[in-house]
Design brief:
The protein is an alpha/beta fold. The protein has helices at residues 3-20, 160-197, 220-239, 253-275, 288-304, 308-315, 322-344, and strands at residues 26-34, 47-54, 72-73, 82-107, 110-133, 138-153, 202-210. Strand 5 and strand 6 form a beta hairpin. The longest helix has 38 residues, at 160-197.
């Protein structure tokens, strides 16, 4: 066999393996789940009032975004059981232009050292966070004097005098933009912490679902299980649609029946597919390339069905591919967190 024939033959073998080996054909799905609080509020807490207080006169921020999921928001302190408050104490900034060296082009082959300029603006927002249980007279959160700072650095300006002029003309507007970004980031962090500790948010966890690929084998069952999962996620999202859905979702009987039916079908399909697994064989419907995905997918179906122990046990079957082993470990950590939170209720 000549060298050229050898490489042709090798390429042909690799191509045939590619054609006939079974591939997972995965697609990520955002799996919704209700996260329970890590620090449950007293059972007599039902309504809350939230507000943003801004003592800074430099910039303004709207009183939005502080929603405690699973509770009713009211507008009067007199009818509320819980008070949530985000206070902007002050905002400040510093700025300066400075000289910056750069290579100035004279011609295609010649550069000389020249002096231009840049300028920086560093802006800081100082804020405090409070949560008070009005019903039971308890201060649940009191975080004072938190700072968030960020800095803007301009692009190179080839004339230092122009850099000074741009600095003087733009520093205040840049600082106000950073103030708003810092305040919004502070609100985002507070809202996340608030709902992690006390709320019932609908969160999402991304899982890659395998559908199989290739004409040699029939993967219509895996395609159906994937379609089931997509429909399940749609039903759950619809149950929590709107600005203030019920704590455990707004399900009607039709939604519940379809949800349980799709989950039951998915679990059956995935269990049967796992039974078809043939280790270390390429020309088979369920091979080493897809089996780990199927275990993760089955664990996801158990997770959605509230069978957390079964979900964790199923993930122990993931043993072959490094990427899926890592994904299974991360998913199991999420399952353990959900189980831990459930026990606290």
């Amino acid at each position: 066999m000549t060298k050229s024939n050898f490489y042709f033959f090798l390429t042909l073998i690799l191509s045939l393996n590619f054609i006939y080996s079974q591939r997972p054909n995965t697609k990520k799905v955002a799996i919704p789940y209700l996260q329970f609080p890590s620090n449950p509020l007293n059972k007599n807490i039902e309504k809350y009032i939230s507000k943003v207080v801004n003592y800074s006169t430099i910039f303004q921020i709207p009183n939005t975004g502080l929603n405690l999921k699973g509770y009713e928001r009211v507008t009067s302190i007199g009818e509320s059981d819980l008070e949530i408050k985000f206070v902007i104490n002050n905002a400040s900034f510093t700025s300066k232009p400075f000289k910056a060296k750069y290579k100035k082009k004279v011609n295609d082959s010649t550069y000389v050292e020249a002096i231009g300029g840049r300028f920086t603006v560093e802006a800081t927002v100082n804020f405090s966070e409070y949560v008070r249980d009005l019903k039971n007279n308890k201060l649940l959160i009191s975080n004072e004097g938190i700072n968030i700072s960020n800095q803007f650095t301009s692009d190179l300006i080839k004339d230092y005098g122009s850099a000074v002029k741009q600095h003087n003309n733009n520093r205040e507007s840049i600082a106000i933009r950073i103030f708003n970004e810092n305040a919004i980031e502070g609100l985002r962090r507070f809202k996340s912490d608030l709902n992690s500790k006390f709320g019932f948010p609908l969160n999402f966890y991304y899982i890659a679902f395998a559908r199989g690929r290739g004409k040699k084998f029939d993967y219509s069952d895996l395609e159906r299980s994937f379609e089931n999962i997509e429909r399940i996620t749609e039903i759950i999202k619809n149950a929590f649609a709107g600005p203030n859905p019920p704590r455990y979702g707004n399900y009607n009987e039709g939604m519940k029946n379809e949800l349980f039916s799709k989950l039951e079908d998915t679990i059956k399909i995935l269990n049967n597919s796992i039974k078809e697994y043939v280790p270390k064989k390429k020309k088979t419907k369920i091979s080493d390339k897809i089996i780990d995905h199927l275990y993760i997918n089955l664990a996801t179906a158990y997770f959605l069905n509230g069978e957390l122990n079964k979900a964790s046990e199923t993930l122990k079957g993931v043993k072959i591919n490094k990427g899926e082993i890592k994904a299974a470990s991360q998913f199991n950590t999420k399952i353990e967190d959900v189980a831990k939170r459930l026990k606290l209720q």
